[in-house]
Write a structure and sequence with these properties.
The structure holds two protein chains of two kinds. Chain A is of the alpha+beta class. In chain A, 24% of the residues lie in helices and 36% in strands. Chain A has nine helices and 22 strands. In chain A, helix 2 packs across helix 3, helix 2 runs parallel beside helix 4 and helix 3 packs across helix 4. The longest helix of chain A is centred in the middle third of the chain and has 18 residues. Chain B folds into two domains: 45 residues; 235 residues, MetI-like (MetI-like fold). Chain B is 73% helix and 1% strand. A two-stranded antiparallel ribbon of chain B has the order 1-2. In chain B, strand 1 and strand 2 form a beta hairpin. The longest helix of chain B is centred in the N-terminal third of the chain and has 35 residues. The two termini of chain B are 31 Å apart. The chains are: A alpha+beta, B mainly alpha. Bound molecules: adenosine-5'-triphosphate (ATP) and magnesium ion.
């Protein structure tokens, strides 16, 4: 079990509101990742779920029961902290046993659980060391071990990998994914690393200044971002945003590009809008063709592909991700086109209107 | 900067720097020689003399030290001092840490400052006022303490005139006066402990006293050791707290070692004997602080 439900959860520190009414349901066994820019309230929301921070309003329910006034241990949650927070005066073994002793487990049960967790995490030889004598990656494992042995119904991770080097991050990320398969508890994981979010999550919760912008599977967020914020936040490099005007034309409602090419959106209202195209969906067209033109600023070669940075006449910055090839001459004037099936249209209020996938076609002039 | 000098301090290329360095430490050095090293050597020498300040000192060998063994007043003072030290250190450090923990919790800032100031205030008050205040509090017949004790049915206690109770009174005064300082140091120590440990402990289900004993005390242990050491040294040298309250009385019931040294030296003019007792006190302090440091390896924890 471990169904978590947040109902209109609000939190203020003093007079400053930090979480502005979050509703969320996480079914048992799901791996949910909170992402969002720094300071958007991810850690605060996680601490509220843990029971370390009281809510200002709203309800937290675990398996249908309101747990607002329960201590973390009573909620049966375990948490892995960014700093690991291993008790520095206790050996790894004692760190793992601490919570179990308090919970009143027998010595034998405690030893079995620690032995099992240590085997799974490959930290058996480290159990009698104090945290000071462990490397960052080893501490990380002990911290995860301390969470596992409690057999919680809810695992909470607050940026657990951010203190590790790149190689260890990848490795530990994979291990956390394996761990989730193994223990089938509900897991909530905070990060601002997109790759972690995309690879680990069953569902991602995108947050922005104390609000949930969108909840969905990684591919849903990638393919159908609900608004400009999510569209810009998910995906790297960031989605290109072209300011366009939707006008009435003989072909119906459409946006007309610099080169006369038009993309039609049957259902879009007339007026200013934003056309979103991911860098991987932009390509370079023949001179005078394509939807938009731009001057080359920089070309980055990354081996299998390259990133073309350009700036359009109206100042819009463009990034295209192309297969690697011979470099363009400096300051070249490039014309970009795109696959009409992979565009996103956002209204003046930033909310998604639709995509050509559903209702548009690109017609060259 | 940073280049290793292989030649001696006074090699021509280093001489200037060495002289400058010596000039910088000179004021501290003069102070040390005049007020620490000098008197210590003098004490060592005088302890082997018979010297009454007026006539020339005469060498008496170890006689002053032999006299210690047959001086019941000395051992009474020694016992008083040791008892005082044990309870004053327990009171100051124990209560100081507990107060620090209580005042380090979340509460309105204003309240926090008021409490901290209130507990620290006695450390700032001149001893004469302290004496007047506590003389009044401890009065047998018109004292405030006995008034309230009377209300709950406890007969008048002879706080200052009973030989058994007077030492307790002295300890109470000392803790009242000095606990605020220990509290302040402990608060500083507490604030350097990351709140993550407390969050982790809460997730583990630890609360109240368990958190205090298993998280706070170990993480605060370097501060606690510092407080114990400083308070022990201070307690063994206790003088004015007792002078102002009981002046060592009744009889010798509250006389401390330093008071006895003062009496021998400046009232009975046995400078030699007073110096010998001073060395005894020094030895005791050195031994006890050494023992504390050795034992502390077992219970203090440095991150
Ligand atoms: N104890 C506190 N008192 C006052 N303000 C706080 C407190 N804790 C957090 N905040 C504020 O709440 C907001 C959200 O903080 P939070 O730590 O949840 O952000 P975050 O999304 O985890 O950011 P990061 O990615 O940098 O960790 C921030 O503006 C922060 O300054
Ligand atoms: Mg955070």
């Amino acid at each position: 079990m471990g169904v978590l439900r947040l109902e209109n959860v609000r939190k203020s520190f003093g007079a400053v509101p930090v979480i502005h009414g979050v509703d969320l349901e996480i079914p048992s066994g799901e791996f949910v990742v909170f992402v969002g820019p720094s300071g958007c309230g991810k850690s605060t929301l996680l601490r509220i779920i843990a029971g370390l921070e009281p809510v200002t309003a709203g309800q937290i329910k675990l398996d249908g029961i309101v747990v607002n006034n329960l201590e973390p241990a009573e909620r049966r949650v375990a948490m892995v902290f960014q700093s690991y927070a291993l008790y520095p005066h206790m050996t790894a073994r004692k760190n793992m046993a601490f919570g179990l002793k308090i919970a009143g487990l027998s010595k034998h049960d405690i030893e079995t659980r620690i032995a099992d967790a240590a085997r799974a995490l490959q930290i058996e030889q480290l159990l009698d060391r104090i945290p000071k004598d462990l490397s960052g990656g080893q501490r990380q494992r002990v911290a995860i071990g301390r969470a596992i042995v409690r057999e919680p119904q809810l695992f909470l991770f607050d940026e657990p990998l951010s203190n590790l080097d790149a190689a260890l991050r990848v490795q530990t990320r994979i291990e956390i994914a394996k761990l989730h398969k193994l223990v089938d508890s509900t897991m909530i994981y905070v990060t601002h690393d997109q790759v972690e979010a995309m690879t680990l999550a069953d569902r991602i919760v995108v947050m922005n200044s104390g609000r949930v912008e969108q909840v969905g599977t990684p591919l849903e967020l990638y393919r159908q971002p609900r608004n400009l914020f999510v569209a810009g936040f998910i995906g790297s490099p960031m989605m290109n945003f072209l300011p366009v005007d939707i006008v009435e034309s003989p072909r119906g409602r459409s946006a007309v590009g610099a080169n006369g090419a038009a993309i039609s959106f049957a259902g879009a209202p007339v007026g200013p809008a934003t056309l979103g195209i991911r860098p991987e969906n932009l390509s370079v067209a023949a001179d005078g063709q394509g939807f938009i033109a731009g001057t080359l600023v920089l070309e980055e070669h990354l081996g299998e592909h390259r990133l073309i940075h350009a700036v359009a006449a109206d100042g819009t910055e463009l990034i295209a991700k192309l297969p690697d090839g011979p470099a363009y001459p400096a300051d070249a004037n490039l014309h970009f086109t795109f696959d009409p099936r992979h565009t996103h249209l956002f209204g003046a209020d930033g909310v998604r209107i639709g995509s050509t996938q559903e209702q548009g076609t690109l017609e060259h002039a | 900067m940073g280049d290793v000098k292989t030649a001696g301090w006074f090699a021509p290329q280093n001489r200037k720097e060495t002289i400058a360095g010596l000039l910088f430490v000179l004021p501290a050095l003069i102070g040390f020689v005049t007020f620490v090293a000098g008197p210590m050597i003098a004490t060592l020498v005088i302890s082997l003399m018979k010297y009454d300040l007026f006539s020339a000192p005469t060498f008496v060998g170890l006689k002053n030290f032999q006299r210690m063994f047959v001086d019941p007043r000395l051992w009474k003072a020694f016992g008083n001092t040791a008892t005082f030290a044990v309870f004053a250190v327990l009171g100051n450090v124990g209560l100081g840490v507990v107060l620090a923990v209580l005042l380090n919790r979340r509460m309105p800032k204003a309240l926090q400052y008021i409490y901290r100031a209130a507990y620290f205030f006695p450390s700032l008050v001149g001893l004469i006022f302290v004496a007047v205040l506590w003389q009044f509090m401890f009065q047998r017949d018109i004292g405030i303490i006995n008034y309230y004790l009377g209300k709950i049915g406890i007969g008048p206690v002879s706080w200052l005139s009973s030989p058994q109770v007077a030492l307790i009174s002295v300890i109470i005064l000392d803790v009242w006066k000095n606990v605020g300082f220990a509290m302040l140091i402990a608060i500083a120590g507490l604030q350097s402990i990351s709140t993550d440990y407390y969050d982790a402990a809460r997730v583990d289900g630890a609360r109240g006293w368990r958190t205090f004993w298993q998280i706070t005390v170990p993480l605060l242990s370097p501060t606690i050791l510092f407080l114990i050491t400083m308070n022990t040294i201070g307690a063994f040298k206790v003088f004015e707290s007792i002078v102002v309250l009981t002046n060592g009385g009744p009889g010798d019931a509250t006389r401390s070692l330093v008071m006895y040294i003062y009496e021998q030296g400046f009232k009975s003019f046995n400078m030699g004997y007073a110096s010998a007792i001073s060395l005894l006190l020094l030895g005791v302090i050195v031994i006890i602080t050494t023992i504390q440091f050795v034992l502390s390896k077992r219970w203090t924890f440095y991150e």
